[in-house]
Write a structure and sequence with these properties.
single chain
Length: 154
């Protein structure tokens, strides 16, 4: 059932609260994306420092230069996680924009207020987000750093 704002059971305060909740979710997703980059750099740097310290090829230890490739595991995992958070952020932003448009057009459906969910297909958006300039250069640079360190330690 489509209702106009005059027919809607929700007050303007309800609408403001709903939009504020959505903005909070969007902000959390953006913060999680930033935290993924921070943790990725921290873990990969720590792994590479340990490899550089103990991973020379002439060393008799079992921990050789090949161990540098271990740093790719957190790189790939954080790349996927970062893409996931960015996809959620985009989905929630789209949901927010649709809600505002429907509100201004007085086309809100009963039950849309306080219903917070991302728009679109999240798995499809994750794949799309992996190709964004905000994501891939960062993680490709990390892969290149791992490869360069591996070549230097061989």
């Amino acid at each position: 059932m489509v209702v106009g704002m005059n027919d809607c059971n929700h007050t303007p305060e309800d609408i403001r609260t709903h939009l504020s909740m959505m903005q909070d979710v969007i902000s959390r997703m953006a913060e999680n994306s930033r935290a993924c980059k921070t943790w990725a750099v921290t873990l990969v740097a720590a792994i590479l420092v340990v490899v550089a310290r103990f991973g020379t090829s002439d060393d008799q230890s079992a921990f050789g230069a090949q161990a540098a490739w271990i740093a790719l595991v957190p790189t790939v995992l954080f790349w996927l996680l970062d893409s996931y958070y960015l996809a959620l952020e985009r989905g929630f932003r789209e949901s927010y924009n649709v809600f505002v448009k429907r509100f201004h057009a007085r086309e809100l459906k009963e039950g849309e207020v306080f219903m917070i969910a991302p728009s679109g297909s999240v798995p499809r958006q994750v794949l799309s987000c992996q190709k964004l300039f905000a994501i891939w250069p960062f993680y490709i640079a990390m892969v290149l750093v791992v490869a360069v360190l591996w070549m230097l330690l061989r």
